[in-house]
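A further point concerns the way the authors explain their paired sequence and structure data. Nothing conveys this as quickly as seeing an actual entry. An entry of this sort, consisting of the sequence and the corresponding backbone structure tokens, reads as follows:
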Amino acid sequence: MPTTLITNIASLVTNDPSQGDGTPLGLLKDAAVVIDGDRIAWAGPAAKAPAADTTHDAQGRAAIPGFVDSHSHLVFAGDRTQEFNARMSGRAYSAGGIRTTVAATRAATDATLEANLTHYLREALRQGTTTFETKSGYGLNTEDEARALRIAARHTDEVTFMGAHIVSPDYAEDPAAYVELVTGEMLDACAPHARWIDVFCEKGAFDGDQARAILTAGKAKGLHPRIHANQLSYGPGVQLAVELDAASADHCTHLTDADVDALANSDTVATLLPGAEFSTRAEWPDARRILDAGATVALSTDCNPGSSFTSSVPFCIALAVRDMGMTPDEAIWSATAGGAAALRRTDVGFVREGARADLALLDAPSHVHLAYRPGVPLVSEVWQRGVRL
């Protein structure tokens, strides 16, 4: 493979504090990057760049690591336009709307589900997302959960089994039997296709004891926990995430001081999903409070057809800066290195030697424009695994 020198980068976010300005962003001015195969071979000041086989001119644009979207629900069929319309007319959001997507997903063919998945992946890639996680959770029976994971695994290594999205409508009168199914036959069928296990720990979904049983069973099968925690109300989700060393507690909207302290003193990342609050007119998570306590924060889209139907990480960055108390630097870090931390990855979310060669070039001189110019399609060029797309 020939090496490629990308030069004339106005500003480069490396997320390597040993570079540039020494901040968490490791920001370099007048920078360059050398790509060798699918990896970063070198990053630094353009004046010190080594020779390469080919040269690519960034034309004075800013460059950032490709976004790491660590929370999405992309294996589904249908949409929930009517539900969204009703919610914007005053109806409150609840977990129950998931059943609509379950019915559509069960009725869809494999080809339809995969075409839908790839459509939204291409959409996200155009907006700079080069690494993504996605979940099952719209089958809620053994056959449909397993096929969702098989389809997802053809497109990403970051696959999450979420048979515990809500209690299946087939078990509405017997939630305990559904938990038994999820922790038994369904888990056996799904574990070979997944890396993670997730549960919606919330009123209307699963309580703390049920969530613990599900995540513990998943750990016994070699799956690592993540958890939908404290989205709609205060609850045990964050404490359970820390107890079980979950990679992330996702949503984190309603937190006690003890929850914030637990996150700050653990390896569990607080993954914030501002698209959900935007789309449900809900209370915003207080990112400033979580960051000031010293917890690690990730930003993700939560792309799903019910509560956050956006694949745009730049949009979520703008929301986080405007409405959640984050600075532009914090939001960029959280959408790249923070997302990598939520997936317990060190090879993505950074521009440094040995990292995967994933970059987004912006039609702007600085990463700050992602928040400064909301809604503008600033991602003008994407490199994924060393290939310009």
